[in-house]
Amino acid sequence: GQQVMQIPQYQHVQEGEDFTTYCNSSTTLSNIQWYKQRPGGHPVFLIQLVKSGEVKKQKRLTFQFGEAKKNSSLHITATQTTDVGTYFCAGPGYGGATNKLIFGTGTLLAVQP
Amino acid sequence: DGGITQSPKYLFRKEGQNVTLSCEQNLNHDAMYWYRQDPGQGLRLIYYSQIVNDFQKGDIAEGYSVSREKKESFPLTVTSAQKNPTAFYLCASSIRPGGGSETQYFGPGTRLLVL
User: pLDDT for B24-33, tens place per residue?
Assistant: First the structure.
């Protein structure tokens, strides 16, 4: 079945260090979304990428969609304690399942002050 | 103040008991979704509804049931057939159907614990 994997599963950084999480799909995606879930909270939409090779920035966050539209990355520059949480990528289901959003396994980011 | 509300925040279920989780939205969104999240894991789709009076099974529908009698409401019943119901349940909605390409807005979630 369709899989969306993220690496690493967990990363611990010192405040001020950079952080990157990678998302890989077993199938080509028409678009990819990124969500952030704070500890004990609910997922919150961050961004959606649609075009092959697309790069979008939100302040210290940089999102990239791969040329083959099967992978994506989220890079945070100079992490802050407010960046703590789990970051999920998500893409449409494959074939007849395009009405479903398939979430990645998530990357938990811990930031030490 | 628009948004998605879920109640209760915490719910305890006894063995063999059915429980219903509430999800209400005042965003006028067409589509609604139920996800299950286990500790340290991602979100798995239980059921989704694209329009009123219609819903489809997600990836882990066994032991769950839903209804969509009103646009703003999408309650989830966890039946006694669900043998491992302890989890964090998240309700979400999107403006339009086509959940794979639409931004989803999540409620605060309900934590279900089995006694």
Answer: 999 999 999 9
